[in-house]
C-alpha cells in the first residue's frame, strides 16, 4: 500500500460557490452587477416602489389627510358595477380607437404627400408639425373658443361665411358632437407625429425596390401595398402602440373642453380618475380607476410587442 | 490679509520670531477669527425672521387680492415675520391642498372656500377660540356661515366673507319690453325670457348651464330646494330619489324644460363652463343669467357698456320659496404649523373692521357679510345693485340643507352629481325619474362610504 501526504483537493464551499456563479453568470459577473446596480436602484425607486404603493393604495379606503384603511378588492368590485364607470370605459375605448384610426389614415396621407415631389417640402413639413409642437393646453383652450356656439369661429364660418348651415351647432353640448369634437382635437394634435414617423420609415426604403416593382409593372397602389407598407410595418406598429397608450391616457383635451360632460357623454378614465381624486377626494378609489385598465392595456402592449419581435425574426 | 497675520509674516521675514513661533501664533489668530465669525453667525441666525407660509385665494376681484396682500405684508413687517404668499385659483386650489396635505407639507395657514373645513378636517386645527373671539367682536356669525365653519362642534375655519349668486337682468331690454322683475322661475322667468329674447339676433332670454360646473351645480341645488326638495333630508340621509322624489322630479323637469321645451336658453348651453355665461352676457347674448358678483365687478371695473344697463335682483324661487346656497370664505390653520399663535394674530389683524373695510371697498359686492355686525355697513347701500347680494346672503342656506353640512354633502358637490343628473336627461335621454333614481344610488353610495370616514 502506497502511503504519503495527500493534499485535500476538495474545493471549499466558498470557492465552489464562486465557481458556480462564474459558470452561471460569466467571469465578470461582479463588474456586471456593479454597472447594472445604479439603474436597478433607480428603477426600483422611481418605478417599482411607486407602482407597488399605488396598487396597495387602490386596495384601501384613503381620504385626504387620513391614513389608508385596507379594503381588499372592494374598490375594484364597486367600480365594476358602477354605471358611470362603465360608461367611462366605453367612452375611453371609443375615444382612443377612433382617434388612433383617424390619425393613422391622416398620418399616412401626410407622409405620402411629403415623400412626393412637391415644392417647399420642408416648409410644409414644418407647418404640419405645428399642432404637435403647440402645448396641449393652448390648443385645447383655442378649440374651446372655436367650438363655442355663440362666439365660436366654427359656427360663424359655417353659418355666416359659407352658409352651409342655417344655424350653429352646439359642438360641445350634444352627446354625438361632443365626443366627435374632442376626438377631432386629439386627431388635429396627434396626426403630425404619425406623419413624421411614417415619413422617416418611408425614406429608409431603398429606391431600387420601387424601381424594380415599377419595372415589373406594379401600379402605384400595388407599390404602396407591397413595398411601402411592409417597409414601414415596424414603425407603424410602434407608432400605433405609443399613440394608443398616449390617447388612452389623454386628460387635458377632454378636461378643458367638456370636463367629461355633458351628462358624462365624454367622461373618460383619466378625467374620472381626476374627478374622484380631487373632486370626491377618494384617493384609493381614484387609483383603482387608473389601474383598472392596466391589464387590457398591458395585453395590447404584449401582443403588439410579440408581433414586432416575430416580424424581426422572419 | 489680517493685519495681525501680516505683522507675524514681517517678523518672520526679519528673523525676529522662529518659524515654529510663527505657526503657533498664526494658528491662534486664525482660530480666534474663525471662532469669532462662528459666534457672530450664531447671533445673526438667532435674530433671523420667523417664516410663515400662506396660501391665499386668487379671486377674480384682483383689486381685493392686492389689498389683502398689502395688509399681510404690513403685518409681517410689524411682527418681523417673513411671509411667503402663494395664490390658489378656483381651478387649482383643491389639487394644491390635496398634494400638500398628502406630501405632509401644507402651508401654515390658507384661505379656503366653504368646503375647506369639511374636506380637510383631518389636517386642520381647531380654531374655535379665535373664531369665537372674532365673531363676538362683530355681533356673531350669520347662521349659514356658522353651520359651514363648524365641524363636529368645533370651528375649523374663521369666516371672512361670503360670495353668493344673484340674478342678472339686462335692465334696458326689460324696460324696452315693459317687463317686471321675475319672482319665481316658473312661470315668471320663462315668460320674461320668451318675451325678451330674439333668437334670430342670437339674443337669449336665459343663460344657465346644467353642465358639470360650479355654476350648474349651484343652480341645480337651488332649484331642488325651490321646489321643496333637496339631496338630503333633515337628518342628513339621502332623499333625492325617495322622500323628495316628487318635488325633485318637478324641479328637474323645469330645469330641463328651459332647454328642451321652452327654448329660452342658447343651443350650446350644455357645453358651457363656469366662465361661458359671463362671456355670453358681456357679449350681449343673454338677457338674464345667474352669477356671482364677479361678473358685476368685471363689468364695473372695465367700464363695460352693459354695467349701467344691468340690474341685480334676488334669485327667483319656486313653489316652496326662494333658496340660495352661498359660499363662506375662511381662514384655516393646519395641524402641521408650529406657528399657530402667529397665524391667529394675523387673522385678528386682517379681520379688524378698519382693514376689512379697505377690502370691501374694492370688492364691488363680492365680499358679502358673514358677521351680523357687517350687515349694516353703509357700503351695501352705496350701489342699488348691492341690495340683492346682501339679501341673498341673509337668506342663505348651507350645503346639505335641510340637513346639516356633512362630508357626503360636500362630496355630492365635488362629484357634480346634480349636473350629471341633469345632463343624463338633457343629452342622455333618461326620464327625470330615472335620472333621479340613478343619482340617488350614487348619493347612497357616497353616504355609505363617507359614513365610514
Task: Please tell me about this protein's structure.
The complex is a heterodimer of chains A (314) and B (453). Chain A is an all-alpha fold and 314 residues long. Chain A has two domains: 13-58, no CATH class; 75-313, MetI-like (MetI-like fold), CATH 1.10.3720.10. Chain A is 73% helix and 1% strand. Chain A has helices at 13-25, 29-58, 74-80, 83-115, 121-133, 136-146, 153-161, 175-203, 207-215, 220-248, 252-257, 269-279, 283-292, 294-313; strands at 60-61, 69-70. A two-stranded antiparallel ribbon of chain A has the order 1-2. Chain B is of the alpha/beta class and 453 residues long. Chain B is 49% helix and 11% strand. In chain B, the strands form four sheets. In chain B, strands 2-1-3-11-6 form a five-stranded mixed sheet, sandwiched between helices. A three-stranded antiparallel sheet of chain B has the order 8-7-9. In chain B, helix 10 packs across helix 11 (245-260). The chains are: A mainly alpha (314), B alpha/beta (453).
Amino acid at each position: 500500500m502506497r502511503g504519503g501526504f495527500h493534499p485535500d483537493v476538495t474545493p471549499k464551499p466558498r470557492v465552489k460557490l464562486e465557481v458556480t456563479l462564474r459558470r452561471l453568470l460569466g467571469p465578470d459577473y461582479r463588474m456586471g452587477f456593479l454597472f447594472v446596480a445604479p439603474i436597478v436602484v433607480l428603477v426600483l425607486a422611481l418605478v417599482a416602489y411607486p407602482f407597488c404603493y399605488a396598487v396597495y393604495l387602490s386596495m384601501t379606503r384613503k381620504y385626504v389627510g387620513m391614513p389608508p384603511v385596507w379594503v381588499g378588492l372592494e374598490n375594484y368590485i364597486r367600480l365594476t358595477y358602477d354605471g358611470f364607470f362603465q360608461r367611462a370605459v366605453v367612452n375611453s375605448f371609443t375615444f382612443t380607437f377612433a382617434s388612433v384610426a383617424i390619425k393613422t389614415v391622416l398620418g399616412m396621407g401626410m407622409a405620402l404627400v411629403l415623400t412626393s415631389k412637391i415644392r417647399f417640402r420642408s416648409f410644409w413639413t414644418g407647418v404640419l408639425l405645428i399642432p404637435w409642437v403647440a402645448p396641449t393646453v393652448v390648443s385645447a383652450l383655442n378649440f374651446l373658443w372655436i367650438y363655442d356656439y355663440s362666439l365660436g369661429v366654427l359656427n360663424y364660418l359655417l353659418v355666416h361665411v359659407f352658409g352651409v348651415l342655417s344655424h350653429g351647432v352646439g359642438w360641445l353640448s350634444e352627446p354625438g358632437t361632443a365626443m366627435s369634437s374632442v376626438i377631432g382635437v386629439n386627431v388635429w394634435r396627434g396626426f403630425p407625429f404619425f406623419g413624421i414617423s411614417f415619413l422617416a420609415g418611408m425614406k429608409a426604403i431603398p429606391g431600387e425596390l420601387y424601381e424594380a416593382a415599377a419595372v415589373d409593372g406594379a401600379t402605384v397602389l400595388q407599390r404602396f401595398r407591397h413595398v411601402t407598407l411592409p417597409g414601414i410595418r415596424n414603425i407603424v406598429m410602434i407608432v400605433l402602440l405609443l399613440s394608443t397608450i398616449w390617447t388612452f391616457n389623454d386628460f387635458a383635451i377632454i378636461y378643458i373642453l367638456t370636463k367629461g360632460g355633458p351628462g358624462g357623454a365624454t367622461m373618460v378614465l383619466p378625467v374620472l380618475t381626476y374627478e374622484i381624486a380631487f373632486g370626491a377626494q377618494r384617493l384609493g378609489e381614484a387609483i383603482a380607476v387608473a389601474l383598472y385598465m392596466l391589464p387590457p392595456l398591458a395585453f395590447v402592449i404584449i401582443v403588439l410587442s410579440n408581433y414586432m419581435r416575430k416580424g424581426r425574426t422572419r | 490679509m489680517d493685519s495681525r497675520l501680516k505683522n507675524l509674516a514681517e517678523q518672520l521675514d526679519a528673523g525676529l520670531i522662529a518659524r515654529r513661533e510663527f505657526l503657533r501664533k498664526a494658528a491662534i489668530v486664525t482660530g480666534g477669527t474663525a471662532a469669532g465669525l462662528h459666534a457672530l453667525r450664531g447671533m445673526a441666525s438667532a435674530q433671523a425672521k420667523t417664516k410663515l407660509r400662506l396660501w391665499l385665494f386668487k379671486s377674480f376681484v384682483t383689486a381685493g387680492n392686492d389689498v389683502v396682500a398689502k395688509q399681510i405684508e404690513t403685518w409681517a413687517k410689524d411682527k418681523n415675520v417673513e411671509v411667503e404668499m402663494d395664490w390658489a385659483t378656483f381651478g387649482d386650489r383643491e389639487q394644491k391642498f390635496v398634494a400638500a396635505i398628502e406630501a405632509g407639507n401644507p402651508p401654515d395657514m390658507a384661505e379656503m372656500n366653504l368646503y375647506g373645513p369639511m374636506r380637510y378636517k383631518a389636517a386642520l386645527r381647531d380654531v374655535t377660540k379665535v373664531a369665537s373671539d372674532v365673531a363676538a367682536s362683530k355681533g356673531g356669525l350669520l347662521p349659514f356661515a356658522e353651520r359651514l365653519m363648524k365641524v363636529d362642534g368645533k370651528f375649523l375655519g374663521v369666516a371672512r366673507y361670503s360670495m353668493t349668486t344673484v340674478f342678472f337682468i339686462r335692465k334696458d331690454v326689460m324696460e324696452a319690453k315693459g317687463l317686471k322683475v321675475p319672482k319665481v322661475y316658473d312661470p315668471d322667468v320663462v315668460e320674461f325670457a320668451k318675451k325678451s329674447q330674439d333668437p334670430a339676433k342670437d339674443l337669449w332670454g336665459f343663460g344657465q348651464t346644467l353642465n358639470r360646473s360650479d355654476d350648474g351645480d349651484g343652480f341645480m341645488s337651488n332649484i331642488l330646494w325651490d321646489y321643496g326638495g333637496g339631496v338630503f333630508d333633515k337628518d342628513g340621509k339621502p332623499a333625492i330619489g325617495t322622500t323628495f322624489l316628487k318635488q325633485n322630479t318637478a324641479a328637474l323637469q323645469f330645469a330641463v324644460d328651459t332647454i328642451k321645451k321652452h327654448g329660452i336658453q342658447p343651443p350650446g348651453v350644455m357645453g358651457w363652463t363656469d366662465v361661458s355665461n359671463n362671456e355670453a352676457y358681456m357679449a350681449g347674448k343673454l338677457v338674464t343669467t345667474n352669477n356671482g358678483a364677479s361678473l358685476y365687478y368685471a363689468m364695473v371695473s372695465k367700464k363695460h357698456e352693459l354695467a349701467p344697463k344691468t340690474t341685480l335682483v334676488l334669485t327667483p324661487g319656486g313653489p316652496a320659496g326662494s333658496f340660495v346656497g352661498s359660499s363662506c370664505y375662511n381662514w384655516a390653520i393646519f395641524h402641521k404649523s408650529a406657528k399657530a399663535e402667529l397665524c391667529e394674530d394675523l387673522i385678528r389683524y386682517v379681520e379688524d373692521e378698519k382693514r376689512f373695510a379697505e377690502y370691501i371697498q374694492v370688492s364691488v359686492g363680492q365680499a358679502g357679510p358673514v358677521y351680523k355686525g357687517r350687515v349694516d355697513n353703509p357700503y351695501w347701500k352705496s350701489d342699488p345693485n348691492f341690495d340683492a347680494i346682501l339679501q341673498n346672503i341673509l337668506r342663505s342656506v348651507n350645503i346639505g340643507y335641510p340637513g346639516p353640512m356633512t362630508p357626503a354633502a360636500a362630496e355630492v358637490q365635488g362629484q357634480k352629481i346634480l349636473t350629471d343628473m341633469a345632463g343624463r336627461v338633457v343629452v342622455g335621454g333618461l326620464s327625470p325619474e330615472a335620472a333621479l333614481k340613478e343619482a340617488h344610488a350614487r348619493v347612497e353610495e357616497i353616504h355609505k362610504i363617507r359614513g365610514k370616514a
